[in-house]
């Protein structure tokens, strides 16, 4: 049976929404924007293309995709947290950009098949009740030959393993908790990152869906983060 965490996780993201952006910047030491930009570049969405950003949060990845597709393109950001979407819409208004933000479920995307050139998710697939089904849903709404792009935390190996483990366990929950007033939330985020399949394991999860003709994996920052890009097969 799939794990059932969505409602408690939704409430958690609603609680931490007001301080989410600044906390991300501090905890990633400013790197989260660089990781997102790499995923956008890797996705190779054309000017005028269409993108669905799942678990969009406050919209950071959606805005980067909008820059890439231009005014003639279309970007939709979807999230289950109302408070995150409030902030995303405020940012879109302040930036004067046309990104559509919608509330919705990653496991039941409110779009027809083959609607988008790219479907993306950054640091959210591990929070989906059934990650495999979530990947399948993203592939469903992407045109054949289009791409599903995933950015998620990993578990570094080699020289990075011990320092990152100490940082993740001892620093991240304390600093995140202090900045948001919700240490429990950042303890949960650290624990899910540590347990979630990364690298070849997540690539195998994507492959097991049968949705992709090609899958590529890249390590970022020594394996702290992984990017995955699946090309949707013609039969999907």
Verbal overview:
The two termini are 24 Å apart. The protein is built from nine helices and seven strands. The mean pLDDT is 92. Strands 3-2-1-4-5-7-6 form a seven-stranded mixed sheet, with helices on both faces. 45% of the residues lie in helices and 22% in strands. It has a single domain (6-155, 197-232), classed as Rossmann fold, CATH 3.40.50.150. The protein has helices spanning 6-16, 20-27, 32-43, 60-69, 82-95, 131-140, 161-180, 183-195, 200-208; strands at 50-54, 74-79, 100-103, 116-122, 142-153, 212-220, 225-232. The protein is of the alpha/beta class.
Write the layout of secondary structure elements.
Layout: H1 6-16, H2 20-27, H3 32-43, E1 50-54, H4 60-69, E2 74-79, H5 82-95, E3 100-103, E4 116-122, H6 131-140, E5 142-153, H7 161-180, H8 183-195, H9 200-208, E6 212-220, E7 225-232
Parallel strand pairs: 1-2, 1-4, 2-3, 4-5
Antiparallel strand pairs: 5-7, 6-7
